[in-house]
Each structure stands twice: as C-alpha cells, then as structure tokens.
Amino acid sequence: MPRFKKKTNKSLLKTIPMDEVALDLGSPDSLFQSLIQHSCSIERFYEYYWEQRHLYIPCLKSESGDNCQDKQFSGTRSSYFSKLFNHEILKEIVVSKKLEYGKDICACRFDDEKKCRVNAEEDGPVTADKVHSLFHVDEMTLQFHQPQRFHDELWKIQEKLESFFGSQVGSNVYMTPDGSQGLAPHHDNVEVFILQLEGEKEWKLYSPVVNLPRNSSSDFDDTTVKGLTLLDTIIMKPGDVLYFPRGTVHQAKSIKGTGHSTHLTISTYETQCWGDYILDFIPYLTDVAADKVVSLRRGLPRKYYNQTSTDGFKQNLKEALISLAESLTESTDVEMSDSIVCNFFANRLPPFGSVQEQLGKNPTLSSMVRLSYPDHVLISRGKGQYHAEDTLEEEDNDLESDEEGDKEDSGKMEVYVYYSTRNRRITHMMEEEEKPKGLRFAAECWGGLTTLKKSESDFVEVSDLNLPMHVGLDMLVALWAEGLLECKNDN
Ligand SMILES: [Fe+2]
Hints:
By secondary structure, the chain is an alpha+beta fold. The chain contains 13 helices and 17 strands. It has three domains: about 250 residues, Cupin (Jelly Rolls), CATH 2.60.120.650; about 55 residues, no CATH class; about 150 residues, Alpha-Beta Complex (Outer Surface Protein A, domain 3).
C-alpha cells in the first residue's frame, strides 16, 4: 500500500520526478555517498576530510558532454540541482506563503570598496515585488532560510541526511546577482556542504582562526583576512558540491558575466561535539556515581570556597573526577537518552510522506510486525531519574510494571520509545520543541523493542519478540495506534 498519494499539480514545490533525480535517495548512506559522488568512500570521507579539510566535488562530465551524469542515475546533476531552488520557486513560495523579512528572507550585499556588509533594512511581510527589486535594482543577495519547510524535494533530501548524521540538518539558499558578493568573510559553527544550483561562484577558503569553533564568527575585517592563509580558490559550477569543516573562513562571489548564482548551503553538527555531550551527561553521571562511590560522598573541605585555587583542592578535585570517570565503566545497568538526542528527536524533520494513521490491522499474537519508520524511533531505558519523567506524556496505555511482574533488577527501570514521525516540518530549524514525543513501557519490553529496532524494515513474528505475556501485546497495540508499527495478519 503506498504511503502517500502522488498529486499531479504543477507546483514547483512538489517532489521532482524520479527520472530527473540525480541523487540516490534509497537510504541515508546511499544519499550521502551519491552527494560526495566519485570523490571517495564514506569511510575515507570521515577519516580524511570530516572536521579536517575541505573537499571539492566537481560534477563528472558524461561522454555526451552533458555534465554531471552519474552512471546509476537517470537525471543529470546540474539539471536536478537547478530544480532544488531558483527564482520561479522563490516566487511561488513568496506568493503562496506568509513570509517575513528577517525570519524567512534576508537581503545583503558586501561592499567591496568599504569591505563591509550592507543589510537591507526590511521588515514585515515579504512581497514578490520587493524581493524582485532587492535583487534586480539594489543588487542584493537574497538569503532564504530553511527552504525544506516548503519544497518537498529538499524535505526528502534533508530528512535522509538527518538520519545519516543523527543530527539536525538545516539549509539556506543564497541567490546572488551577477558579479556580486553577499556576505563578508566569516566562519560558521557547523559542518557545511555547498551545492551549486545555478550560475558560477568563486569561493575563497582560509585557514581557521579557531579550530572547530563552537560559535559562528562576526564579519572579519580586511586586515584579519589578509593575515589568514588562503587554502583554496574554487570556482563552483552547476552540479558541483563543496564540503568544508566548521571554522573554515570563507567568502564567495558570483563570477561576472555568468549570470546570477544560486547555491544551497546544507549544514549540520551544531552543538554536537564531545564537550556538549559531556556537559550534558555529567550531572546524570555524577548523580549515579555519588550513590555508588564513597569518595564522592565525602564532605568538601571546611570553608572550601577559600581553597578552590590551592594545589591541594585541585588535587582532591582531580581525584574525585577520576573516580567519576572510573564509575562510568562500571555502570552498565542504565541506558539513558541525553538531552542532545532528545532534542534531535524533538526537532528533526518527520519522514517524508509519512502518514499519521495505523498501518494494517491491529497486532495480535500471531501477527508479523515491523517498525514503520525505524530511523525515527529511539529506544532507551532508565530509572526515571534523568529527564524521562518530564519528557514523556502519560499515556492511557502507560504500562508501568505491577508488583507481580517486577524483577529485583528491573523494578524501577522503564523503557522509553521516543519518536519523530509526528514532528512538524513547517517549523523545522525555526522553532524549537522542548520534548520529543514518547511512550513509556515496562522494563520487560526492552528485549522485544530492541529486536524490532534491529530488524529494521524486515517483518518479525510477534512470537519471536519474547514479549512478556502481561504487557507485550498492549505495547504493540500502543505502538500501532501511534502509527509506529506496521502489522501483517495471517487472515
Ligand atoms: Fe557561512
């Protein structure tokens, strides 16, 4: 049964016909591999380029002279890229949606003489006439925020990339007039993939001022830029892709005489570094470890606040931190979801074309089942001390263990199923939800749920899930009712 109906209207915001698609959207991995094309394998990319150095991926030339024909795809890459965003698409969005300057669209121009950025001072509702004059009369670069909110093909691509990275993937479109530059030199705090959609643009990449910065920079002045090492100058043409790590200083100018340029910046890995994770994890780890390790429960020195800068205090603190780190290797009984992953599941794109209804009939003990969108389901367990209590809704089907079913080691444990299938696409990267949607089940459901998750798109017999008699079927019905479980019954 198809999960969504194909419509036959002429909107440019719908998905692009399969025979014109030039990326492999079959799976998150195949999509990423097709994005970096022939340049290297995914393993090589992570080993050699990711967070380390830029990678320019020019389009392949096909034998016929048509550019960007990658053997396994029928669509040409430059033609496909040009349909991801262009002036007609911009116009359709501006006319059909309520957009605001600042929030959805910005306009700016880099003054090459004064070496600074000039911003259009617009606010309020966006109109097609004004956008036209900002671009054609004022010769400003239009920056369109998060077009995946409106264009289905970008939704499809970015949702798959979010599954690939396990991190939110945002995008911005930059439409620059002929021979013009929009932004001043700067660096970002995200990993960046540039897709050249139309026209040509010259990119200058410079060595970072800060390696892998946690914040984006303000505009760099000319003196600072002159002091940086120029890493590369690249002329991007339609169908080309460029990756550079966060921190790479960059500026880009459309090539005079080649018409306007449109490029799409896809970015990811904002606040997703080890430091962010540890910052988030330490309170939980400390709480668990202090219950177990006596040295962490010893009192601080008397009037410790007068001693925090002494060598003795620092030595004691170091020893406490070592006990904390050691307790990590011992604590194998709790698997929790930190707030980084909860935030990801609360705010990522929902699956493209997902339905909000039950798939198949309700499950029975003789059914075959599978998760409808395994990439969009996160299974976790814990004891509720972390933020599980306030991130999950209490459901009618809440399956808190009763006294009978409790085992000594699992009495307080609970299993959580977080899911992103009902997230809102229209607010992606614009508004933040605090909590992912979730269901709570008894600890005994853990084995069955992990089997379901591991089997991915394969159906499994309910009898093979080894679910506890008293709660197992209720759990499956709860998942099915939420549209998370697909079910095949014998009759
Ligand atoms: Fe940037």
